[in-house]
Amino acid sequence: MAGKPKDRPRVKPYKGPAGGWGSAKSVTEILSREHRPLSGAKLLAQQNKPEGYMCVSCAWGKPAKTHPLEFCENGAKATAWEVTSRRADRAFFDKHKLADLELWRDHDLEEQGRLTHPMRWDPQSDKYVAVSWEMAFEEIGRELKALDPHAVDFYTSGRASLETSYMYQLFARMYGSNNLPDSSNMCHESSSVALPQSIGASVGTAILSDFENTDCIFYIAQNVGTSSPRMLHDLQDAVDRGAKIVTFNMLRERGLERFINPQSPSQMLTGSETKISSYYYQVRNGGDIAALFGVCKALIEADDALKVSATSRVAGKDGIPADPSNAAMVAFAASIASADKKHVLDHDFIKEHTCGFDVFASAARKYEWDELERVSGLTREEMMQAAAIYGKSDAVLTIYGMGLTQQLMGVQSVHMVVNLALLRGNIGKPGANICAVRGHSNVQGQRTVGITEKPGLVPLDKLSELYGFTPPRWTGRSSVETCKAMMDGEARAFISLGGNFLKAAPETEAVEAAWRKLRLTVQIATKLNRSHVLHGEVAYLLPCLGRIEVDEQATGPQAVSIESSVAHFHGSRGKIKPASKELLSEPAIVAGLAKATLGDTVVPWDQWVGDYETIRNAIEATYPETFKEFNKRLFQPGGFPRPLPARERKWVTNSGKANFITPERLFPELSTASRTDVLHLATLRSNDQFNTTIYGYSDRFRGIEGTRKIVFMNVADIEALGLSNGMNVDLATAIDEKTVRRVTGLRVVEYGIPKGCCAAYYPETNPLFPLQHHDAQSKTPSYKLLPVYVTPSLETPRD
Ligand SMILES: Nc1nc2c(c(=O)[nH]1)N[C@H]1C(S)=C(S)[C@@H](COP(=O)(O)OP(=O)(O)OC[C@H]3O[C@@H](n4cnc5c(=O)[nH]c(N)nc54)[C@H](O)[C@@H]3O)O[C@H]1N2
Ligand SMILES: Nc1nc2c(c(=O)[nH]1)N[C@H]1C(S)=C(S)[C@@H](COP(=O)(O)OP(=O)(O)OC[C@H]3O[C@@H](n4cnc5c(=O)[nH]c(N)nc54)[C@H](O)[C@@H]3O)O[C@H]1N2
Ligand SMILES: [Mo]
Description:
Elements: E1 10-11, E2 18-19, H1 20-33, H2 37-44, H3 73-83, E3 87-88, H4 90-95, H5 98-101, H6 106-111, E4 114-115, E5 119-122, E6 127-130, H7 133-146, E7 152-156, H8 162-175, H9 189-199, H10 210-213, E8 216-220, H11 224-227, H12 231-240, E9 244-249, H13 254-257, E10 258-260, H14 265-270, E11 274-275, E12 279-282, H15 288-314, H16 327-336, H17 347-353, E13 354-355, H18 357-366, H19 369-376, H20 380-392, E14 396-400, H21 402-405, H22 410-423, E15 434-436, H23 443-448, H24 460-467, H25 479-487, E16 493-497, H26 501-504, H27 508-515, E17 520-525, H28 530-533, E18 538-543, E19 552-553, E20 556-557, E21 559-563, E22 568-573, H29 586-598, H30 605-610, H31 612-622, H32 630-633, E23 640-641, E24 658-659, E25 679-684, E26 689-690, E27 693-694, E28 698-699, E29 704-705, E30 710-713, H33 715-720, E31 728-733, E32 742-750, E33 757-761, E34 786-792
Parallel strand pairs: 2-10, 3-4, 7-16, 8-9, 8-14, 9-12, 13-24, 14-15, 16-17, 17-18, 25-33, 30-32
Antiparallel strand pairs: 1-29, 5-6, 5-18, 10-11, 19-20, 21-22, 22-23, 25-34, 26-27, 28-29, 30-33, 31-32, 31-34
The protein binds ligand MGD (2 copies) and molybdenum atom.
């Protein structure tokens, strides 16, 4: 990894696999750069182990039988970044005005190290100055009391524990607000809306053992090698058993192609790699609905063909299809059909368990292959090949990520994933489930304990009964609605439990301008970022313990808990000395704010802070089925599972069945601009960042070193637009003539990306995204599909 951007960045295809020595080297480098070479290595041995601490990077499942080292390159980076010996202390804040820090890069702000003391912005000096915790709570409480609860937003980034999250949502609701936007609103909200409609579960149904039982994995729009590398072990084991992996991705991502397990001495020494994907389909961004329709069409028409040929047989024609033009389809169908050669689809499952099949099947039959090919960017042969593998497999696991959810048609894309699964009963049996790969380490869990703007998802009556108050029933604001409310002047205060909202949200320029007009900004954080440097009239920066640190309270060191992507709960115990004596834990900060704002209540805030077991008892009292015997099961190896009816084929939907939901179209209406030189932009993460946290300037697997200011383009588009590889360009939003948004000074990188598509890094390109450019139902920003113009620039790219 590269700590600083380079004047002469390097773009050179990476030949190695994911994992391997490249990954081992990267871990060593970051530990030494954060000055933790030895203690860091010792610490990492306890990552994701029972009685250890749960990684602060991604949410991937933690197995009961652990590997000797249960961490990956990017998990190690996240750990090193948190346990760094660097400090953003009083001396640092004495030296720098916020107006100056506004000009700093994201990487440089966080690289100052851990925040050490509570601070208040001082208008005279334009600096953050130290204050006592008492003063901070007192003034924030006073400010909140003076505001209308409708005007206050309580944001959560997906890292906070179940304990903190439960307390935080309770605080917001007792204060009178359901404005609980969270990072999930910009991430898997499309799943949170679509999955309940389709299968009556708000999260994916897959568990780790599905990898041991699956015959085939459909891997859609997720970058495992960077975003959830520990899953590569599960994929590798499945491949070794003979399972086929069928990948749909806009780019050829190295982690989905080849992997060397850094923990396998034989693979490391011999360099023998595991080929991950058996079939790799480079779909256009936004083309997944069309691609999956193609697969479904092939399966449905093959099934139809068998029926026709069966009828002809009955008619005494010796198995020769009545319609000769159907012969090829019959042969295809026969090659993938059930043992009795009678069907391709699982009609028993469809009949017993689903609703809406006929409408869906006729939509699939109606789409012409030409159109499916044009929209998906795949050929008919490719879609039929995928269908053949799907049809021949008894148990198919479907895995997906942001390329599918951050779309204008994100909810309908998720419906489509389920539609395909339902054709052959690929939900709710060993090896066959839906896996929505979550982002932040506890983003899924926060929802489970009430962080949501949607009051219908929270047991409000229970909260009312337990804590003797009347919870607000109105629908709160999601992340994009919070941006709008800030821009309209309706939101007056933003309380942030972690995260970097200004950089993560769309419409950067207008949101930043609105942010500066807020009355109150309060940031609970570990490291300095842009959302702290820009601020409201009254602004606090409150530093907290990280999950890896020992959390000592009245009854001794405490544990916290999280929920993984495969819906298992895990306890986590901090291991190292806190970064500063003045840090408070997140539960202590939330309790301090709540007490100062709400005054006397029946909630035993102090008792909760003194003993987190009592918070878990409160969680169990609120959600008795989900968290049964919570404290007892906290450190169960492999975690304890969350009950999910869909996993047992019980469908808690409006129809009582799993629903085929037919997307209304293949592709959204994107641009009304009259120009034709429009490309479709997807924003990406590099291998050297965690969301807005930029560790460095290396995207090893994609061969980019020393810069993030680039745009990946297809060679044909580069030529057609009169550009050249390495040329400096600007990007402009191409939705309509009125919507003008620009990001300037990027460098063209010729890359193997489908024609008509381009890609660039998040968060640098967030200013291009208009606020209203989101999925209609879930309001997830369409970060993976934006029409843009790419034009020559006079500006030299500067990171
Ligand atoms: N190291 C590291 N780990 C992380 C994070 C991080 O930033 N760094 N972030 C965490 C978070 S919060 C999240 S949500 C996850 C994100 O993890 P991912 O879900 O992997 O999200 P992205 O990294 O944005 O990449 C999306 C993938 O989709 C592909 N893609 C883009 N558009 C399309 C499309 O329309 N169709 C198809 N089929 N493919 C497409 C891209 O080529 C890319 O491979 O990772 C989590 N883990
Ligand atoms: N263009 C574009 N935009 C996107 C995306 C995209 O793919 N493309 N992805 C979206 C997605 S999937 C997500 S999840 C969001 C992410 O949005 P956020 O969750 O808001 O952003 P992060 O970058 O994860 O937040 C990083 C900050 O969290 C703080 N932090 C770290 N650890 C802790 C902790 O233990 N406690 C506390 N209190 N604070 C801590 C640090 O101060 C750090 O600077 O961004 C979204 N934005
Ligand atoms: Mo995310």
